[in-house]
Design brief:
Spore Coat Polysaccharide Biosynthesis Protein SpsA, Chain A; 10 strands; two-stranded antiparallel sheet; alpha/beta; 18 helices; 445 residues
């Protein structure tokens, strides 16, 4: 590539590539610096909130299995007042049996007529009697210190929602992780760095992940919130059921509540992921939810610009990320093809260019994932697959952008919004009662 010094004709192609590269690595080192400076909030010796008095765990599920027992025992170790499982009527028997096997005195099972995650969550909210409510996935495994560290954040009276850091729990009982689980682990490492950085810089977070997130119950019991939450449509006609965590995060931003991410070992949860190619379907669903939510945050609601400008900028960056990522190999291909007609006697062979570029990518990705390899050095063998996955992900993001009308779950039989309740005269009366509050709920747009 030293030929650039002799062939100024290639500058129009490679100067933009250099500028993009400089920007992306500058952006990366800013995030790393903020991540290093970040500090979690520590529990007080005499806390305002106690798990056994002030916390209800709500778990919407339809098909909990043996992993539920492991997760439930980890929740109980954190001493919550109660755990409420919300399922569909047909699954009451199996879920009640699981609850009885773990702790029937602490775990209650409630039902809704048909599976719909958001309606299940609202059912759990209305059954809760504590000041703090924690939503958890049925496979989220906690450390015994989880609730103590979550509650530490609620000493701030304006704190509305608190998220956690995450890592992968292997499906295989031996602890062996497949390629797909390691890829998920790479993504979680990047996410943990990102949310710690944004929390440190401006107190914002792009998403309070639904795997485990805590909220003040009074926010969730608001009739305006519940109406918006269960009547959420994309473009006014596609009912949304997934993306509940994105909705909740935007609600905190738009209604003046603070958010915080507890990124530390004491508040780290373990979660299972698809250990086969179906992981890609999960990623596709998450990507569509991110597109929809970020568009709303940036262009419809716009609260994020004023409250958390750094987070807003990260959202803008993600909009263009697929294009900047794909620009690199395209310009390198252009450079390789140009060598065939290079005026010198010793043009660079195409394989030399390709290998050099691949080694550069491997080195820089290894640097970005260094925090992951500090914990799991054995995962480094997946690094070449991570390169391929990144380019696949860039193309998939563009595909997701043009298929935002597809609102199904993809990996489950639970179709988004398929069981939203029919509107009745009572519903219209209720809608009229909350109209004044609904004027601030732009998420129904």
């Amino acid at each position: 590539m030293l030929y650039l010094t002799d062939d100024l004709g290639l500058l129009p192609f490679f100067l933009p590539l250099g500028i993009i590269g400089f920007y992306r690595y500058l952006w990366f080192f800013i995030k790393i610096a903020a991540w290093i400076a970040y500090q979690p909030r520590l529990p007080k010796s005499n806390p305002t909130y106690l798990p056994e008095r002030d916390v209800t765990i709500v778990v919407p599920t339809i098909d909990a299995g043996e992993e539920f027992k492991i997760a439930a025992k980890s929740w109980l170790a954190c001493r919550p007042k109660e755990i409420i499982i919300i399922t569909e009527t047909s699954m009451l028997g199996p879920l009640q049996q699981l609850a009885n096997e773990v702790d029937p005195s602490k775990i209650k099972v409630r039902t809704v007529p048909k599976a719909n995650k958001r309606l299940q969550m609202v059912e759990g909210v209305n059954a809760a009697t504590t000041e703090i409510l924690v939503f958890a996935d049925d496979d989220a495994i906690w450390k015994p210190t989880m609730l103590d560290y979550i509650l530490a954040c609620f000493e701030d009276l304006k704190m509305g929602g608190v998220g956690t850091s995450q890592t992968v729990h292997a499906v295989d009982p031996s602890g062996h992780q497949t390629l797909w689980e390691i890829l998920a682990g790479y993504r979680l490492t990047s996410r943990n760095i990102e949310i710690a950085a944004s929390t440190h810089i401006d107190g914002g977070i792009c998403c309070l992940s639904g795997r485990t997130a805590a909220y003040r119950t009074l926010i969730l019991k608001d009739p305006a919130f519940q109406y918006c939450f269960t009547n959420d449509f994309w473009l006014g006609k596609y009912p949304l059921n997934s993306g509940d965590d994105k909705f909740l995060t935007r609600w905190m931003h738009s209604h003046g509540w603070n958010t915080y991410a507890q990124v530390c070992k004491e508040a780290e949860l373990f979660s299972t992921f698809k250990n086969n190619w179906r992981f890609l379907k999960q990623v596709l669903r998450w990507t569509r939810n991110t597109w929809r939510s970020d568009f709303r945050s940036l262009f419809t609601e716009r609260y994020i610009w004023r409250r958390h400008p750094y987070v807003a900028f990260t959202m803008v960056d993600k909009l263009f990320n697929p294009l900047t990522l794909l620009a690199g190999p395209l310009l390198v291909i252009k450079f390789a093809l140009s060598q065939e007609h290079h005026p010198t006697n010793a043009p660079l062979p195409g394989w030399n260019i390709a290998v050099s570029y691949a080694l550069w990518l491997l080195a820089t990705r290894c640097l970005k994932l260094f925090p992951h390899f500090l914990k799991r050095p054995q995962d480094i063998w997946v690094l070449p697959c991570w390169l391929v996955f990144n380019y696949y992900f860039a193309i998939m993001k563009l595909y997701a952008l043009f298929t935002l009308h597809e609102v199904g779950w993809g990996t489950r039989n639970l179709e988004a919004g398929a069981q939203l309740p029919e509107k009745t005269g009572d519903d219209h009366h209720q809608q009229h009662e909350v109209k004044l509050e609904m004027d601030t709920c732009s998420t129904t747009h």
